[in-house]
Amino acid sequence: MTLAKVEGAPALARWTGRIALFSLVVLAFAIVGHRFFGLATPVLLSLVQLALAGALVSVILAVIVAVRIWRHGGVGTARVVTAIVVGGGMLAWPLSFYPTIKRMPAINDITTSPANPPPFNALAGSRAAPANGTAYDASHFAALQQTSYPDLVPLKVNRSCEETFDLVVDAVRRERMRIVRETPPAEDNGRVGSLEAVDRTLIIGFNDDVAIRVTGDDANAEVDIRSASRYGRHDFGRNVARVRDLLHEIVVRLESTIPGAAENRRKRKGSAEPEEAPSERKGAGRRKAAPRRQ
Known about the structure:
By secondary structure, the protein is of the alpha+beta class. It is 54% helix and 13% strand. The protein folds into two domains: 2-96; 109-289, 2-Layer Sandwich (TATA-Binding Protein), CATH 3.30.310. The chain is built from nine helices and six strands; from the N terminus they run ααααβαβαββββααα. Strands 1, 2, 3, 4, 5 and 6 form a six-stranded antiparallel beta sheet that branches.
């Protein structure tokens, strides 16, 4: 009976290593295929689930084999270690997001105007099932966003809506987003400018959608931004970070067109202030020259 256990251990050990390496290949294929070769996102998600399931199986089998080797002796230790390292490393990837999930609210649609978010029109066709819908779920997201991100409000500036829209387009391009449609404010559309763009995550290449609306008159304008994930119930903070980055970039574009603002910024950067961190000087400059926000 003992002999059968000893002889069976190497075969099972080989399978632990094979399953772990196969799972790693599937995961790499899914990520590379999605990022660079247009693999559909639902296929990516299915392959990732398959790879992680294989990694879990390989780790469980590796533990079983390790116990057998410890109790009865035999070969296969290297394969067991390979399965634990490879499979465990793959499982550590999704587990690393657990603190973020616990810390941040489960929101996948962020907007500066929950009562009237900018709509997705041109991008609606990119959200076929099983992707998330384009309708904003105010009953679920509005109160949660207000509690978690009370700083997200419309950006109000003392510029014409036409000039503000041009600066918004420039800011979106500087954030390296792909503009799908832009409609400048004009008399025939009630001076409501709209822009829709797509932003890709760096590693896996998930596509998230952005909609921006600019309203106003000859003297004042209001900018509303919406960022939403196409897949998943939790965005891990990506959308709120994107909205904040866009708001900051728009403010920077606005500051750069204020007479004397660029020269003042250069003077501030050139002044020696060793006791003050660069990020603090930059933040202070933004607060001094930022447009009016409510």
